[in-house]
Amino acid sequence: VTGVRRGYFGLLQGDYAPLAPEAVHDIIHRGGSMLLTARCEEFRAPEAPARAAARRRQARIEGQVCVGGEGSLRGCLALSQAGLPAVGVPATIDKDLPHTDGTIGFDTAVNTAVEAIDRVRDTAAAHERTFVVEVMGRHTGFIALAAGIASAAELVLVPEIPWTPAAVCDRLRHALHRGSRHHLVVVAEGAARGEDLAAVIERETGLETRVRILDHVQRGGSPSAADRDLATRLGAAALDFLLAGRHGVMAALRGGLPAAVPLAEVVEGRRALDPGLHALAESLSL
Ligand code: F6P
Predict the structure, then answer these.
(1) Which of 177, 183, 186, 190 supports an S-S bond with 139, CB 3.0-4.6 Å?
(2) Burial class (CB in 10 A: 0-12, 13-18, 19+), 22
């Protein structure tokens, strides 16, 4: 088994790292990537996948597992179309991939966000302040919604569900009227900039408002037990699919069971955020 360093960049360069059992037997608790990672614009060029596939064949590599989010899975599809057997594994904190119960990293990111929000809550309560906490998620609100529910935030703002600053301020005034003297607003980075929202809230409501942007803190640290479990099972499923000759698919868990989903369906599809869950989050909190 050979690892490729720095993702598709390393694939084009032939930058490999042997993955003998002793190299990987003590890494399950580690964050980040022992193989490093990189965003590789070069791999988007039309001839790049064929170049990478040829290089891999020279190195007598028979199949490839690509671990990552949407961009990585698009690359995986291109590799497989260029004739190199390839299977994808969904790994992104954003959970913005369809046809899979979960994506590796999401649970850890949500737990990290919840822990941070709990700490912020102590100051919010003691000083009777409003806090806006901005979480990642790129163009989606899955992290915000999960972290907002687990923190019983007063408001959860996500890009998928329309909202206005005026409505946010109204809801905070209403909460104040009902006796709530501190408030937590969780905002997905794709819905608004935390600073902008905090400024509007303070200006319009007079509530003392602070902002915390969690950014890359959510992407590091030791993985949660759920992520270790998911990664272990998806890795095993990916290998099973490769050995069984099923290529051009993403290894997923669906309803808790391994499934091979055609990569074309994954990259063309969209994961929908559950509006009912969002409504529940907000109905419980104010
Ligand atoms: O896709 C994962 C993610 O962490 C997003 O949530 C975020 O928008 C983006 O990557 C940040 O990317 P970078 O570290 O390149 O700024």
Answers:
(1) 190
(2) exposed
Return the structure tokens found at 70: 């949407």
The CB of 93 under 6 Å from ligand 1? The reply is yes
Report the Cα 124 to chain-centroid distance in Å: 27
Residue 218 CA: which ligand 1 atom is closest? 4
Asked whether 151 and 186 are in contact (CB, 8 A), the reply is yes
Under a CB-based contact definition with an 8 Å cutoff, are residues 66 and 104 in contact? no
Q: Whose CA is nearest to atom 5 of ligand 1?
A: 138
Q: What does DSSP say about strands 2-4 and 16-18: parallel, antiparallel, or unpaired?
A: antiparallel
Prediction pTM value: 0.96
Structural contact between residues 105 and 227, judged by C-beta atoms closer than 8 angstroms: yes
Query: d(Cα 215, Cα 284) in Å, to the nearest integer?
Result: 27
Ligand 1 in reach of 138 Cβ (< 6 A):
yes
- E runs forming strands in the chain: 2-4, 16-18, 64-68, 86-90, 130-135, 155-157, 183-188, 209-213, 249-254, 257-262
Residue by residue, pLDDT tens for the chain (286 residues) are 999 999 999 999 999 999 999 999 999 999 999 999 999 999 999 999 999 888 888 888 899 999 999 999 999 999 999 999 999 999 999 999 999 999 999 999 999 999 999 999 999 999 999 999 999 999 999 999 999 999 999 999 999 999 999 999 999 999 999 999 999 999 999 999 999 999 999 999 999 999 999 999 999 999 999 999 999 999 999 999 999 999 999 999 999 999 999 999 999 999 999 999 999 998 877 6
